[in-house]
Design brief:
By secondary structure, the protein is α/β, with parallel strands linked by helices. The protein contains 11 helices and 12 strands. It has 2 domains: about 200 residues, Isopropylmalate Dehydrogenase (3-Layer(aba) Sandwich), CATH 3.40.718; about 130 residues, Isopropylmalate Dehydrogenase (3-Layer(aba) Sandwich). It is globular.
């Protein structure tokens, strides 16, 4: 089986880390045929927008995508490339697993949790206007359909992956209609899964509890803005955005991505850490059922991290991108 995957290399360090990822997957024998497509600054230069229609069409056709970090020009009226991708393709699940990795020093050990973020609504609907001079109104959108479908996806995913406790985290006490509706949908759908433990927790309490002991959490379900913030916090528990994967998933399409920035200060220097994009590619392999290849690459990565002899600077080592990548391929 050969999988055709849309590849958006991204900006800044994007081409370096996606190229490294492609090298590792090729060495592991992953049956992937890449179809490159523009995005970010490249999309603006070639098509006038950060997320061109041609790129969206490629992902719709292939139903699979892998992308590096994208740049959206600031102050020029462009809509975020990432938000456009999620909304145009209806990728309503923001999937962000974080796990303690060997060889990476953090204040916490044994972290293994998943943040699930509703990707299409909330303040990210982008509906705002100036009511009177100096007063701006931004609408928080919350629909029953969106809340129920991500709740359904969450419980079904837990059923197949063996996770057994989920916290739905909102500010329903302050926003009783919008957040309350999200919470109600969670409880309604969750009633059909009596073997999964379900808890409600205010999102501010969640931030506090994560700082105290993140190991008590398994799956977190949040709306768009809360999920955006708390998923980054969760990444910080295991070493930062440079070591965690991400995915945007819909009913028929999934795009896997690094969630860190473009790091223009080190772009082109050959010292970037490709682990976030590589880990996202492993999620892609898992998504299509290529578990053996995924596990083989994952073991190689863990061996390199545990040995600690070929780590990039952000991980405490002195290796460059090629050295870290070669070490993983040697383990393969």
């Amino acid at each position: 089986m050969q999988y055709r995957v849309t590849l958006i290399k991204g900006d800044g360090i994007g081409p370096e880390v996606t190229d490294a990822t492609c090298r590792v997957l090729a060495a592991a024998g992953a049956p992937i045929d890449w179809e490159e497509a523009p995005g970010g600054a490249d999309g603006v230069a070639r098509f006038g927008v950060p997320m061109p229609a041609e790129t969206l069409a490629s992902v719709r056709r292939n139903r699979l995508g892998l992308k590096g970090p994208l740049e959206t020009p600031k102050g020029k009226g462009f809509r975020s490339a990432n938000v456009t991708l999620r909304q145009e393709l209806d990728l309503y699940v923001g999937y962000r697993p974080v796990k303690t990795l060997p060889g990476i020093r953090t204040p916490y050990k044994g972290v293994d949790l998943v943040t699930l973020r509703e990707n299409t609504e909330d303040l990210y609907a982008g509906i705002e206007h100036e009511v009177t001079p100096g007063t701006v109104l931004t609408l928080k959108v919350s629909t029953r359909r969106a809340a129920e479908r991500i709740a359904n996806w969450s419980f079904e995913n837990m059923r197949y992956t063996g996770r057994r406790r989920i916290h739905c985290c909102t500010k329903a006490a302050v926003v009783p209609l919008a957040d309350g509706a999200f919470q109600d949908a969670f409880e309604k759908v969750g009633a059909g899964y009596p073997y999964i433990q379900k808890d409600l927790l205010p999102v501010d309490n969640l931030a506090f509890e994560l700082a105290l002991d993140p190991t008590r959490f398994d799956v977190l379900l949040l709306q768009n803005l809360y999920g955006d913030i708390l998923s980054d916090l969760a990444a910080g528990l295991v070493g930062g955005l440079g070591v965690v994967p991400g995915a945007n998933i819909g009913d028929r399409i999934a795009v896997f991505e690094a969630v860190h920035g473009t790091a223009p200060d080190i772009a082109g220097k050959g010292i970037a850490n490709p682990l976030a994009v590589l880990s996202s590619a492993l999620l892609l392999l898992e998504y299509v059922g290529e578990h053996r290849i995924k596990e083989r690459v994952e073991r190689a990565v863990w061996d390199v991290l545990e040995e600690g002899r070929h780590l990039t600077g952000d991980l405490g080592g002195t290796a460059n991108t090629a050295g870290f990548t070669d070490a993983i391929i040697d383990k393969l």
